[in-house]
Design goal:
InterPro entries: DUF3035. This protein is an all-alpha fold and about 180 residues long. The protein is built from 6 helices and no strands.
């Protein structure tokens, strides 16, 4: 009888432990960007622009192998147009508007690293791995918060600081 109780307790414990494998409501936190669920990525689907018939067929450009198409996506020009800019002002080379060339030159006056994203990603992975070595847990944990707790800002302290300085600030939810 005692072995049956012990077996039942172990099974119940395993079921309870398996229930802790996902976060609340089965949803992962937003900063957990892993996608190993086998589900399609809705952000990877980009619809084509609608087909349009020009006023005259003479207005169509001559086809060039490997060239552009009128229905091809132009995300940079579309973003400029959505933000109220003029996509025709974009330069062909680097995508910087002619009026913003001085701003870009000033911002990159000390140089820029074209591989900055890869460098930051590797440093981030190294930091989280180093911070994760110090503690061990039987259940999977998210070490993002532990790794970056020293870099996190207190939003309510900064909200109060800006309010005391006289800046207009939006309403904030109450402190939990």
């Amino acid at each position: 009888m005692r072995i049956a109780h012990l077996t039942f307790g172990m099974i119940l414990g395993a079921v309870a432990l398996a229930g802790c494998s996902q976060s609340r409501d089965g949803v992962r936190p937003l900063h957990d960007l892993r996608s190993n669920s086998g589900e399609p990525n809705e952000f990877a689907i980009v619809p084509n622009k609608p087909l349009t018939i020009p006023e005259t067929m003479a207005a169509l450009p001559t086809p060039t192998p490997g060239g552009g198409n009128r229905t091809d996506q132009t995300p940079q020009a579309d973003a400029v147009a959505a933000l109220g800019g003029n996509p025709a002002r974009l330069q062909a080379g680097d995508g910087v508007a002619a009026g913003d060339a001085a701003l870009v030159q000033q911002a990159t006056r000390f140089g820029n690293d074209p591989a900055i994203r890869q460098k930051l990603a590797s440093e981030d992975a190294e930091l989280r791995q180093r911070k994760g070595r110090l503690s061990w847990s039987i259940v999977p944990r998210d070490n993002y918060g532990n790794a970056y707790s020293r870099e996190a800002l207190d939003p309510y302290a900064w909200l109060n600081r800006y309010r005391q300085a006289g800046a207009r600030t939006p309403a904030a939810p109450p402190v939990e």
